[in-house]
Amino acid sequence: MATGEDLNSAQMTLSSREMEIIDLVADGLTNQEIAERLTISKRTVDNHVSNMFTKTGSKNRVALLNWAMDHGKICRDGFNCCSLPDASSSDL
After folding, report:
1. 79 DSSP 8-state letter
2. Distance (Å, whole) CA 55 – CA 62
3. What is the dihedral of CA 61, 71, 45, 50, to 10 degrees?
4. SS3 76
5. How far is CA 73 from the centre of its chain?
6. DSSP 44-64
7. pLDDT tens per residue, range 33-90
8. 7-26 residue pLDDT tens
């Protein structure tokens, strides 16, 4: 089992594509719908979601969304919203 410190390190390794997928999961899209929206295969989406489960310690989509809200990655209806730096700006 991962320690809290391991999970904190994992949080920093979510890719911009994974964050894009979390947003689409939060919008209620299925993996097939996400694949169609991003023009990638469903299997690729499945792999991204599975990797995010591992990285965040989540066991399902609801837990993944809870993790994302708890860590300021997504917000809904003004809850837990803050100004997050653009992922591309960290590359500068």
Report:
1. B
2. 15
3. -60
4. strand
5. 7
6. HHHHHHHHHHHHHT-SSHHHH
7. 999 999 999 999 999 999 999 999 999 999 999 999 888 888 766 655 655 555 555 4
8. 454 445 789 999 999 999 99
Residue type, 43: R
- pTM of this structure: 0.71
The reply to whether 89 falls in a domain is: no
What is the CATH classification number for the domain harbouring 14?
A: 1.10.10.10
Looking at this protein, which amino acid is placed at residue 11?
Q
What's residue 13's pLDDT?
74
The interaxial angle of helices 16-26 and 42-56, nearest 10 deg, is 100
Q: Please check whether residue 68 is in contact with residue 11, taking contact to mean a CB–CB distance below 8 angstroms.
A: no
Angle at which helices 16-26 and 61-70 cross, to 10° = 110
Domain count across the chain: 1
Structural domain of residue 33, as residue ranges? 4-75
What's the CA gap between 7 and 71, in Å, rounded? 12
